[in-house]
Design a protein that fits this description.
alpha+beta, Gyrase A, domain 2, Elongation Factor Tu (Ef-tu), domain 3, 22% helix
Length: 330
């Protein structure tokens, strides 16, 4: 399940990327999320089924509700990460394109006891980046999701169009996403490359399936207990590990940032060592950020505090808390 081995995580510091990040900070830009896939689950038992197999409490959700969830191994390791929106009579799920087929197969494998039909994965997602997301959606005639705060909710315009609010702006997902992108472009929203989304994802310290979220990681290491895991429910695969680690506080590493010296980037999977040669962690994503320079997301041992100097292969790095800020380059 470690599909991140095929991912180099590098961002080209091109003028197009520089302009896209400037547009995202000052207004809003749109990114065609070719790295996401969507699938629909329908049937009378969809919410009960997801409640049984995932880390999220879904049994009493209503249309318009939204959540992020994980499927874990029996030992509590992350196998899949996805987001869901409750529809009338079903659920719309989006996840990494690399994971879509395997996730659909996994969900379909155990539905024999439930009234659930798992649809085929397909493309359909657009990310809006920047503070002017709501105005852009309104100009394009698209629904505006509820403000952040309280239980998760999305703007549901039907089974083919859902708008989620995100830490970076908003995501439009579903089969109607290509038409939504055309409407946004027609409303004056500039298009931006996928690299712009990746640069901002790393800047904000957001873990991604196949990169930071792999089958050797538990949810607490990635900081997902507050967002992807409902701690008051049980009886799902991996729940005992989640509860034990949370109650005993025995997690040995955390997701952290690295500020790298020079202009080179370490490959994902590069080991981290202290200046005296002790193992300290592992790089997962690295980008050449137009504003921050070369930075990375890494799992770092808890005993290695922010400010520590490490080596990522031959490259010098400094550990920082997430998210990244301009002060980290000082």
């Amino acid at each position: 399940m470690r599909n991140g081995d095929r991912y180099d995580g590098r961002v080209d510091q091109s003028p197009l990327l520089v302009d896209a990040l400037a547009g995202a900070r000052a207004g809003v830009v749109a990114v065609d999320r070719t790295n996401l896939t969507v699938l629909t689950l329908t049937g009378g038992d969809v919410l009960r089924y997801l409640h049984t197999v995932s880390t999220q409490h879904t049994a009493e959700r209503l249309p318009g509700d939204a959540a992020e969830a994980l499927l874990l191994s029996p030992k509590g390791k992350i196998e899949f990460a996805f987001r869901l929106a409750v529809l009338d009579g079903g659920v719309l799920i989006d996840t990494e394109a690399e994971a879509g087929g395997a996730l659909a197969e996994r969900l379909a494998r155990f539905v024999f006891r439930y009234d659930v039909a798992v649809g085929r994965p397909g493309p359909g997602a657009v990310s809006l980046l920047g503070p002017e997301v709501d105005a852009a959606l309104a100009r394009a005639g698209l629904p505006v999701p509820p403000a952040v705060g309280g239980p998760g909710q999305a703007a549901v315009a039907g089974p083919a169009l859902v708008v989620h609010r995100t830490p970076l702006g908003a995501d439009v997902v579903g089969g109607a996403a290509p038409a939504a992108l055309r409407a946004l472009t027609g409303a004056g929203v500039a298009a931006a490359p996928l690299d712009a989304w990746e640069a901002l994802r790393v800047e904000h310290g957001l873990p991604r399936w196949g990169r930071e979220l792999t089958d050797d990681v538990i949810a607490e290491e990635a900081g997902l207990l507050g967002s992807h895991v409902h701690l008051d429910k049980g009886c799902y695969p991996g729940q005992e590990t989640v509860a034990r680690v949370h109650n005993l506080g025995q997690v040995q590493r955390r997701l952290a940032g690295l500020v790298l010296e020079g202009g080179q980037l370490p490959a994902p999977g590069t080991g981290l060592v202290t200046e005296d040669g002790r193992r300290a962690g592992q790089v997962r994503s690295a980008v050449l950020h137009p504003d921050l320079g070369p930075v990375a997301l890494a799992y770092v041992r808890r005993v290695v505090p922010a400010g520590s100097h490490l080596l990522a292969g031959p490259l010098a790095a400094r550990v920082v808390d997430l998210p990244f800020t301009p002060a980290h380059r000082a």
